Amino acid sequence: MKTWIAIPALAIGMALGAWVDLKAQEGPQQQGSETVARPRKKADSKSNPDNAQPADLPKIPSKLSEKARANEDATTADVSFRADANVVNIGVSVLDNNGNPIPNIPKGNFRILEDNTPQTLTQYSIEQAPMTVALVIEFSARYQSYWSQGWRETLNAAYGFVQTLRPDDYLAIIAYDLRTEILTDFTNDKGKISEGLQRLRIPGFSESNMFDAITDTADRMSKIEGRKAIVLITSGIDTFSKLTYDKTRKQLQESDVPIYPIGILQLARQMAEARGANTIDFLQGDNELRTFAKETGGQAFFPRFMAEMPNAFYKINQALRTQYSLGYTPTNQAKDGKFRKITVQLVNPATNEPLRVTDQKGKPIKYQIVAKAGYKAPLPVQ
To answer: In order of start, what are the domains of the chain with their CATH numbers?
Structure first.
C-alpha cells in the first residue's frame, strides 16, 4: 500500500511540471488553459529570447478539402481517388468465435446478393495492404477533464492504437468537442502524428458533437481508395450535433467507410449504476455505436479495463489487414440514387448450402461475416 505524505503546494506544482515535461512524448503537456480548439499564438522569441516557449501547432488544413484539391496537383497528393462508379467494392472480414479472422477462403465460396439478387464476383484478393485511418477522438470537458478517468482512458487508447500502425499506414488525428478540428492530417510521418497527439491537453467545451464529427470525417474519406477506416474513441454521448442520429446513420451507410468505435468509461459507468445512477444515455450511446459499426462493416469494442485495450487494437488491425477485397458490377445499372442492400454469404458451390468451416481437428467453427450493409447508387450526371 502506498503512503501519501502532505508537502507544500508549491513543491507539488514544481514536481508535476517537471514530470509533464519529461513525458512530452507520451501524453499531454499542461501550459496554461490551452484547449484542442484554441491553439495559442507563437511566443515572441526575438523580444524575449530567454522566455521563448514552444508554440502549439496551428490548425492543419485538410488536403482533402475543396480548396486544397483545387490548388494542389493530383500527383502530389498523399491519397488517391477513384471515379469508377460501375464496380462495387466490398471489404469483407470473416471472424471466428473469438473475433479472429479466418484466412484463405477461396473465391468460389463467396456469394453476394444486391437487393436479394445474386451478383457475379469479378474481383477478389486477400493480400494484406496498408491502411488509411482517421483516429477520431472525443476530447471535451464533459468526460475528459484534466487527470480524470476519462482523460486517462482517452489518451491511453489514442497512444496505444498509434503504436500498432505500420510505416506505410496513413493516419489523421481528429478531435471533437463543440466543433471538430484536424490536429494532424493524413500522414505516415510519426513526428507529425506525435505532434498532433501532444495537442490533447486540457479539453475546452463540454459539448460532444459526435454525429457531426464522424459524418464530416466519413465524407472526407469516402473517395479514398484502398483499406480505410474510422477508429472512434468516444463515450458514445452526443449533446449538440446539427445532425440527428437517423441522418448520421444514413450518411455513414452511404460513405463506404467502416467505423470501429472504442467506448470509454465502461467500468466507471458500471460502478455508478451499482450505486443507483441512471446510465440510460450511455446504454443508448453504446447501441448507436454498435449500429454504426454493423452497418458500415466495422466492429465495436467496449473494454472495461485498460488491459483489454491492446486486444481491441489487435482485432481492428487484423480485421482491416486480412480483409477479403471483393468487387462486382451490379446487374442493376440504374442511376437513381437509391440505397441498395448488400448481403455477403459463404456457400458450398456444389450444394449451394451454407459453407461449413472446421478447425484443424475437424470441429465446426461458428463464424461471422462483417461487411457494409449496402451503398447508394450514383445519380445521373447533370
So the answer is: 88-127+326-376 (no CATH), 131-321 (3.40.50.410)
- pLDDT of 368 above 60: yes
How many C-beta neighbours within 10 Å does residue 240 have?
15
Confidence of residue 321 (pLDDT cuts 50, 70, 90): confident
pLDDT category at 11 given cuts 50, 70, 90 is very low
- What local confidence, expressed as pLDDT, does residue 2 receive? 42
Q: Name the pTM for this structure.
A: 0.72
DSSP 8-class letter at 87: -
C-alpha distances (whole Å) from 267 to each of 105, 147, 277, 301 are: 38, 17, 13, 13
Q: What is the dihedral of CA 166, 169, 175, 179, to 10 degrees?
A: 180
Element (H, E) at 19: helix 9-22
Cell numbers given for 145: 477533464
